[in-house]
Design brief:
The chain is α/β, with parallel strands linked by helices. It has a domain of about 325 residues: Amidase signature (AS) enzymes (Alpha-Beta Complex). The chain is built from 16 helices and 11 strands. The chain has an 11-stranded mixed beta sheet with strand order 1-3-2-4-6-5-10-11-9-7-8, with helices on both faces. Strand 7, helix 9 and strand 8 form a beta-alpha-beta unit. It is globular and about 70 Å long. It catalyses: L-glutamyl-tRNA(Gln) + L-glutamine + ATP + H2O = L-glutaminyl-tRNA(Gln) + L-glutamate + ADP + phosphate + H(+). Belongs to the amidase family. GatA subfamily.
Length: about 500
């Protein structure tokens, strides 16, 4: 049989279901791949070998007993280290939670287990999901499998790198301002930010509660749809969870077509700061949509130019509140508790030692924005911009079915290049942030390689809230057309490995 690590999740699930390969064989193949290459890539923070094999054996036993298996049963997955996992460390990429072992599963974790998905381990990430490069992890950066000297995106760079290096066929990420889509774009993979509230946040360590959203990461649109179906749906444990049927994303992925659709090109997402090779691949994607039968129109969303500034007031404000729980008193790291210091001193010493520079920067910014005398000028004004962004989307979607844009202004940049320039780092999420502010759904999928550096470029597709199926309908049509043109998937081999 072909190398199991090169098969899609759908192909692996079919092989397990018909007995061509056992889940244990599939899992062992991926664990061997992790052992072979992850020392170079550093996609994983924790590999749960024993737990993964136990889950795989359980799937094989269920199949042998004649039980009907789910559509992804027996398929391995890499889980971003922001979801709690009972009995397995969850660090959120931070020293302040180093060694913490949760006593419960996040809803996403539980649903994966119930579906028979085999969790290989926890992936590296920017600390508390704050970053665009996975350089802010307290445990060191992850490399991009296309070029290990470059970033794999952030904050979920470990998840995207595990896919691009064939260590896992599926992964889970979270997207607060683009942290699923941006890593997907720079690693040549597929990443989906579902409608806000479409996937439960229970057990997902909070960064910015009104923006955070978990979602599927994969190497194909169909695989992402199959995973989306597993993790989505109402959860009474999450007060922001949408109590409505999940759109039929799998059917949309299997029957992709843009025939008769109106596609809007966002005027504001190009110009200064955009790499020429990125714009060329995007323009080719727009022309491809026309060839496939879509009507393409230009759409203006003027408030999008203000979205980046609004995001970097709203997200830090919410994180300053959410991270107040890490006080050294209840769980996690504790520094200086020698009986001579007050609780306030212990808390201060612990936060100084446990939080990294980017987390401290955002907590301080958010605390300032929420402080007396500044709330209305900063946080209040940012929320007004958020409303304008939502209204721009509403006007656009009254005229078009989906919007498209580049996912990121540039391809993957070298590790360390933007370390001393936070604003340059923040601009990596320029195209993705408006979606989070409005709560809409979006996908990134590969649309080619940039001429300048031969690195992947992402096409972003944006749909209205609860119209996630449109992403998969358009995405699968574009994916099939590109692969027919290229003669193969964009990821055949891993250049750096």
């Amino acid at each position: 049989m072909a190398d199991l690590t090169r098969l899609t999740a759908a192909e692996l699930a079919a092989a397990v279901a018909d007995g061509t390969a056992s889940s244990v064989e599939v899992t062992e193949a991926h664990l061997a791949r992790v052992e072979e290459v992850d020392e170079k890539v550093h996609a994983f923070l924790h590999v749960d070998r024993e737990g993964a094999l136990a889950q795989a054996r359980a799937v094989d036993e269920r199949r042998a007993a004649g039980e009907r298996l789910g559509p992804l049963a027996g398929v391995p997955l890499a889980l971003k280290d922001i979801f709690t996992t009972e009995g397995v460390p969850t660090t959120v990429g931070s020293k302040i939670l180093e060694g913490w072992v949760p006593p419960y599963d996040a809803t996403v974790t539980r649903r994966l287990k119930e579906a028979g998905v085999v969790i290989l381990g926890k992936t590296n990430m920017d600390e508390f999901a704050m970053g665009s490069s996975t350089e802010n992890s307290a445990y060191g950066p992850t490399g991009n499998p296309w070029d290990l000297t470059r970033i794999p995106g952030g904050s979920g760079g470990g998840s995207s790198a595990s896919l691009a290096s064939f260590q896992a066929p599926l992964a889970i990420g979270t997207d607060t301002g683009g942290s699923i889509r941006q890593p997907a774009a720079v690693t040549g993979t597929v990443g989906v930010k579902p409608t806000y509230g479409g996937v439960s946040r229970y057990g997902m360590v909070a960064f910015s509660s009104s923006l955070d959203q978990g979602g599927p990461c994969a190497r194909t649109v169909l695989d992402a749809a199959l995973l989306h179906e597993v993790i989505a749906g109402h959860d009474p444990l999450d007060s922001t969870s949408i109590d409505a049927p999940v759109p039929d994303v799998v059917a949309a992925a299997r029957n992709g077509s843009v025939e008769g659709m109106r596609v809007g090109v966002v005027r504001e997402f190009r110009g200064e700061g955009y790499q020429p090779g990125v714009i060329r691949r995007f323009d080719e994607s727009v022309e491809l949509l026309r060839e496939l039968g879509a009507e393409v129109v230009e759409v203006s969303c003027p408030s999008f130019d203000l979205a980046l500034a609004a995001y970097y007031l709203i997200a830090p404000s919410e994180c300053s509140s959410n991270l107040a729980r890490f006080d050294a008193m209840r769980y996690g790291l504790r520094i200086g508790d020698d009986g001579t210091r007050s609780a306030e001193e212990v808390t201060s010493l612990t936060r100084e030692a446990g939080f990294g520079a980017e987390v401290k920067r955002r907590v301080m910014l958010g605390t300032y924005a929420l402080s007396s005398g500044y709330y209305d000028a900063y946080y209040g004004s940012a929320q007004k911009v958020r409303t304008l962004v939502s209204r721009d989307f509403e006007r656009a979607f009254a005229d078009v079915d989906v919007l498209v844009s580049p996912t990121t202004p540039t391809t993957a940049f070298p590790i360390g290049e933007r370390a001393d320039d936070p604003m340059a780092m923040y601009r990596a999420d320029l195209c993705t942030i408006p979606v989070n502010l409005a709560g809409n759904a979006a996908m990134s999928l590969p649309c080619g390689l940039a001429d300048e550096d031969g690195l992947p470029v992402g096409l972003q597709i944006i749909a209205p809230a609860m119209a996630d199926d449109r992403l998969y309908r358009v995405g699968s049509a574009v994916e099939a057309a590109f692969q027919a043109r290229w003669g193969h998937p964009i990821i055949e081999e891993v250049p750096a490995l």
